[in-house]
User: Which sequence fits this backbone?
């Protein structure tokens, strides 16, 4: 048995992979860093992540008991990296699926039955909610922030002596909680990773995860800590300090190269932002990573968070060619006033230039790859006007519907460390089934999110805010609504095959080129085989002049599971048929567009006109769904819209996912804009 004092370290806060937006399983970086710090003071550390064993009580309890018996710890630590998933959409159904606080409580109860060793809580999540978690979990001690001072005073803490002199320590004085002054420490001055730690990592992941690019996020290596800025939504400076402390780059690369020798190919360089001041740090790291790639292979990649900054094309190429994957923090807004009020360390012009840079780099890294992005539109600084400004800015940048998937962060996680008060009606809370011990002093330790007051008031409730953001994500910001538009179902429900043939043969021909296919298909998402099969089917239709037998493949495809490709082909062919139909009836379709407020727009151009523009124009012209429907009814009554014109109008609504709720109007047009008649000015259109 080791003569060193034994310290056991557990984690019960790993966000496990599962349905919905979540992150892959990650080896707790605290297991690496705490070992290195404790080792400086001759303290032996053994660790175990019990998160992966939740639900299998006998398994984790047996392993925990074995560790306690074999190591006879003088103290036990539990790291709390996060208090929940930090994403409100993971608990919108009112259930707490990820409950690290509850699991930590059960773990502590079990440990109390096995040993008298004191229990110490720490970690980023604990630091963010120290008072609330200390009140609820009632450990012996806690550590806010860096544990260096705790381990330096380890013997004194165990003896309960001079506790007030231990930096960052949280402890009891009778029934009173005492939180000592904070002290921020520099990153490790020597390598953190060792053979023993890597063997533990191998056991944790297993080879199938550790060496799989799809299942593995990469191993963390600290580059710097601390941030001098004060973004209104961020707790990083409060947890890690407002002064940036950069780690010796030689030591950083020692850790990276050690892991590369073990076959690790993906790395997360931990820092608040890699470019807080100048570009020197990111360029130095990029140059060193390039040299490692020459030595170990170009499959090595790395990531780090970074701020919107201006870079030359040469600098961008240097970073991209070093294997950098790019991880910008979420945007809040493109509205200058909102960005200033949010205390962001960059302005909207820098944001615009950086987003263009980010997209250019992404295209270099993954040509034809899926495009995704996220934006924190639920931030309390936003309102209808600022969101409208953001959407208009993205429109001018040709970025509306550029992305295949966009996530809007809809609410702000409430953290104790912010020391803020919120109006209760704007908070969304979810509590676990076991509510024992939960009260006013610790309730925010469980999923608690603040919804923007101005948005809740404008839209009519938290549920209405969620519905609005789902609409923005799919229909306005990303191309999901248009990509998922089921042209086959639309055609089948709108008219029969014989009715379509009559309309088509009167004016149209099935002729198209590659540019037409690019117009109507998202080639990054749609199966290219389905597009080619659809093209061949349309050629058959053209030769047969839309014969029944051939047209039946579009109107009556097999919906059996094993014939799914037939359905995909029919959907793709239906897009081609609609394009050619509306092109043949171009004059009539253009007249429909003019009558509902679009001047100078053609039927073909509608395919690539952003839904934001369509909504904006319809809101200006009609103001609401009800007014639009009244206009539609009148046009049908007068006989102005029959056959293809009415089909085209229905297509415009379905393809663009039109939702003209009156409460949505301020997000698309200025309140002073007229609600009827011609729109004020011409909306920007992308042809």
Assistant:
């Amino acid at each position: 048995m080791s003569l060193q004092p034994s310290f056991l370290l557990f984690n019960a806060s790993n966000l496990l992979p599962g349905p919905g937006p979540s992150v892959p399983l990650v080896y707790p970086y605290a297991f690496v860093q705490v070992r290195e710090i404790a080792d400086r003071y001759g303290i032996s550390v053994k660790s175990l992540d019990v998160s992966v064993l939740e639900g299998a009580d006998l398994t984790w309890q047996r392993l925990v008991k074995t560790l306690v018996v074999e190591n006879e710890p003088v103290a036990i630590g539990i790291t709390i990296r996060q208090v929940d998933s930090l994403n409100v959409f993971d608990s919108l159904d009112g259930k707490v699926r990820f409950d690290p606080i509850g699991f930590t409580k059960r773990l502590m109860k079990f440990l109390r039955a096995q040993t008298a060793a004191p229990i110490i809580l720490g970690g980023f999540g604990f630091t963010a909610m120290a008072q609330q978690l200390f009140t609820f979990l009632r450990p012996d001690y806690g550590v806010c922030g860096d544990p260096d001072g705790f381990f330096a005073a380890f013997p004194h803490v165990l003896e309960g002596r001079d506790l007030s002199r231990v930096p960052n320590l949280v402890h009891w004085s009778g029934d009173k909680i005492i939180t000592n002054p904070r002290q921020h420490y520099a990153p490790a001055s020597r390598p953190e990773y060792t053979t023993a730690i890597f063997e533990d990592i191998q056991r944790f992941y297993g080879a199938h995860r550790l060496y799989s690019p799809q299942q593995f996020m990469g191993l963390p290596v600290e580059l710097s800590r601390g941030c001098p800025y004060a973004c209104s939504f961020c707790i990083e400076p409060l947890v890690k300090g407002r002064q940036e402390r950069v780690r010796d780059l030689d030591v950083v690369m020692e850790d990276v190269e050690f892991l590369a020798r073990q076959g690790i190919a993906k790395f997360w360089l931990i820092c608040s932002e890699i470019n807080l001041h100048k570009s020197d740090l990111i360029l130095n790291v990029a140059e060193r990573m390039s040299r490692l790639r020459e030595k170990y292979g170009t499959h090595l990649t790395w990531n780090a968070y970074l701020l919107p900054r201006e870079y030359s094309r040469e600098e961008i190429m240097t970073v991209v060619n070093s294997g950098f994957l790019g991880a910008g923090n979420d945007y809040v807004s493109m509205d200058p006033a909102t960005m200033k009020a949010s205390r962001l360390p960059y302005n909207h012009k820098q944001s615009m230039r950086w987003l263009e840079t980010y997209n250019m780099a992404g295209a270099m890294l993954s040509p034809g790859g899926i495009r995704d992005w996220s934006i924190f539109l639920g931030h309390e600084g936003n309102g209808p006007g600022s969101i409208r400004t953001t959407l208009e800015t993205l429109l001018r940048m040709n970025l509306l519907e550029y992305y295949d998937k966009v996530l809007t962060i809809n609410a702000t996680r409430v953290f104790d460390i912010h020391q803020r008060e919120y109006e209760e009606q704007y908070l969304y809370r979810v509590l676990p089934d076991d509510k024992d011990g939960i009260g006013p002093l610790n309730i925010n330790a469980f999923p608690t999110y603040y919804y923007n007051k101005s948005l809740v008031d404008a839209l009519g409730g938290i549920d209405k805010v969620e519905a609005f953001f789902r609409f923005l994500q799919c229909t306005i910001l990303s191309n999901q609504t248009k990509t998922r538009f089921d042209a086959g179902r639309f055609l089948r429900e709108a008219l029969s095959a014989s009715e379509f043939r009559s309309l088509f043969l009167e004016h149209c021909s099935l002729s198209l080129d590659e540019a037409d296919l690019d117009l109507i298909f998202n080639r990054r998402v749609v199966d290219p085989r389905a597009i080619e099969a659809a093209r061949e089917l349309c050629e058959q239709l053209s030769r047969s002049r839309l014969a029944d037998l051939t047209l039946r493949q579009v109107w009556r495809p097999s919906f059996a599971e094993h014939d799914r490709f037939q359905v995909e082909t029919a959907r793709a062919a239906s897009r081609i048929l609609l394009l050619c139909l509306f092109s043949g009836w171009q004059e009539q379709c253009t007249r429909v567009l003019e009558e509902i407020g679009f001047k100078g727009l053609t039927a073909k151009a509608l395919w690539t006109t952003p839904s934001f523009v369509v909504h904006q124009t319809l809101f200006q012209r009609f103001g609401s769904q009800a007014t639009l429907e009244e206009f539609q009814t009148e046009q049908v009554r007068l006989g102005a819209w029959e056959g293809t014109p009415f089909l085209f109008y229905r297509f415009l609504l379905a393809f663009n996912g039109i939702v003209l709720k009156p409460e949505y109007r301020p997000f698309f047009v200025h309140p002073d804009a007229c609600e009827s008649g011609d729109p004020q000015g011409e909306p920007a259109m992308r042809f």
